[in-house]
Design a protein that fits this description.
Blueprint (H helix, E strand, L loop, with lengths): L5 H9 L8 E7 L12 H14 L4 E5 L3 H10 L3 E4 L15 E4 L3 E10 L19 E9 L5 E8 L5 H19 L4 E6 L7 H6 L9 E2 H4 L25 E6 L2 E8 L15 E7 L1
Parallel strand pairs: 1-2, 7-8
Antiparallel strand pairs: 1-12, 2-4, 3-4, 5-6, 6-7, 8-10, 9-10, 11-12
Helix pairs in contact: 2-3
């Protein structure tokens, strides 16, 4: 031990007990099934989307814009995964899902539910403030079979029109996370339709707010890999050099790696958003 420099000793001690104790997290707006997307339509993308999830060995995937048929088709391509979530319109199968897929070889779902981003979060199908559409948060409590540790995952998609709705959704999300998860470790995935300097993200990560979340990209032990921007609109590069898709953490979650996954197939992408990846360790 005396021959190991102090820096490397501290680095070793900061790593998880086992290299396999980490969890791979992906947030993925898969773009709703719109036949008008022509060659970018879901039927041409679904295999690519599934292959990204499988290749990166994701333990948790928060998807946005997924219609029920897409949830089912994606599930068929992810045979060891199950999902939790409901449609935002009727709380069943109608409307877009913010579903959470999880690897059943590693995780057990202990509890799950969905609430609406509105003044009445328990009211199915409710639309909040100036939002154009109903918006939801799906959450689940998991137990890691390998470590025995329990943690919560939240997945959401903020409104693309309502500025007030995005701000109030951010505040409601923070309050709900505290009420549901307490002091347990938390991972939050989502398309927030907000840049890092926009009000919703500023409020979510405010240093003086005890309810705040941490942007996993900013605290990753390894430097960020890949583009900074996450929305492409199916163009050949990201629209801007800043993200609107994020993975946030709270309460004893160490971020080991962070990346934006920009793989393409003959110049075409798996979605109009790049998936965002984080490797984390629950401490």
């Amino acid at each position: 031990m005396k021959n190991i420099p102090l820096f490397f000793y501290l680095l070793i001690m900061s790593l998880p007990a086992s290299a396999q104790d980490y969890l791979n997290i992906i947030t993925f707006n898969i773009r709703y099934d719109n036949p008008r997307d022509s060659l970018n339509a879901w039927q041409y993308r679904k295999d690519h989307a599934a292959s990204q999830i499988l290749f990166h060995e994701a333990h948790i995937v928060g998807v946005q814009e997924a219609l029920y048929s897409q949830v089912i088709e994606l599930g068929k391509r992810l045979p060891r995964y199950e999902y939790v979530g409901v449609g935002r319109t009727d709380g069943k199968q109608e409307g877009e899902f913010s579903a959470i897929f999880f690897d059943t070889r590693r995780l057990v779902s202990l509890q799950s539910a969905t609430f609406w981003l509105s003044e009445h979060p328990d009211s199915t199908g409710s639309r909040g403030w100036d939002a154009n559409l109903p918006r939801i948060v799906t959450w689940a409590k998991f137990r890691d079979k390998k470590t025995g540790l329990k943690f919560f995952a939240f997945n959401t998609h903020f409104d693309h029109i309502g500025e007030i709705a995005r701000r109030e959704s951010a505040l409601l999300l923070l309050k709900k996370i505290k009420a549901i998860a307490g002091s347990d470790p938390v991972i939050v995935t989502g398309d927030f339709n907000s840049l890092p300097t926009d009000e919703p993200i500023v409020k979510i990560t405010a240093a003086d707010d005890p309810l705040r979340l941490t942007d996993s990209k900013k605290v990753s032990a390894a430097p960020h890999y890949g583009p900074n921007g996450t929305f492409t609109g199916f163009e050949q590069k990201e629209v801007r050099n800043q993200p609107i898709d994020y993975i946030f953490t709270k309460n004893r979650v160490k971020v080991l790696q962070h990346a934006t996954l920009s793989q393409s197939w003959e110049g075409r992408f798996s979605s109009d958003h790049f998936p965002v990846f984080a490797r984390v360790a629950i401490k």
